[in-house]
Amino acid sequence: MAALKIEPGDDTPMVILDKEHNKFEISGKSMPADVRSFYQPVLDWVSAYTDDPLDKTIFDFKLIYFNTSSSKIFLDIFMMLEELSEAGKEVLVRWHSAEPDEDMQDAGEEYAEMTELQFEFHTYEF
Amino acid sequence: MNNKRGYFDAISEFYDDLPDSEIILAFDGDVTHQVMKAFVSSVEDRLERENENEASRNRLYHVLVECLQNINRHADDQEPVDVEFFPGRGGILLSRTNKKYCLVTANIIRNEEIPELKEMLEKINPMKDEELNLLYKKQLTEGQLSSKGGAGLGFIDIRRKTGNKMEFKFVSKEKETSFFLLNITVNR
Q: What is the CATH T-level fold of the domain A4-124, as seen in this structure?
């Protein structure tokens, strides 16, 4: 399955979806002009990946900022990952937030409460 | 009301704290995505230079993005009312005192949109944190992205992140349209 890599823009995140190297990451800022068209390839890729996943998937979310429209898309991604986990595959979401950014940490905790996925929280110095 | 000054007249009538405030940003024009990005990064840079505390900065950033995207998104699904009052035009006034930032926005909406907007804001305003968090999660799970990318989450998130009630007012403009005025406070 071909990797999907999107370079970061000033209002869009970097996306790496690479099954071969077991690297799944969305990082940076997410407030695209058109959230649907930006994320459609991402949702399509994840959807296709769930048909033939690795035994263990580690997905990194390392966001500086995301708007509320993006938060809806992230939930859609988590829902697809949840199906994997229900099908007996191991899925870990690593949620990274900058050291003083409590709102970002809270947002991750909220997703952890809303899904059955295993979340791990990390902080980094910004 | 003189059409050429309409947006700021509406804002100054609505917002009476202005004499005590320092103006950070004042704009009347087409609120495009590019304009939104330019404003948020300009405000962010300035507040960072001034060593504004990180939490206030982040919250103000979030409020600016959500409010300006609301105006921008709103633009596409409307017919122009006239040359002066085109959809997407917004009045934006960001000011501050020692204690708080105030973002006041003015944009034109169709009168038929008022009841839903009013009901939503009146429902959210008195809610406590827990209720807001529940409503946010409910809307996140059950809501659908609109064709313009709206998720119905903006006001809920602004309300819970700022901890402050949103002041709003509808001022009748033409037969079918009104100004929607919104005042959001972010504590420093």
A: Transcription Regulator spoIIAA (3.30.750)
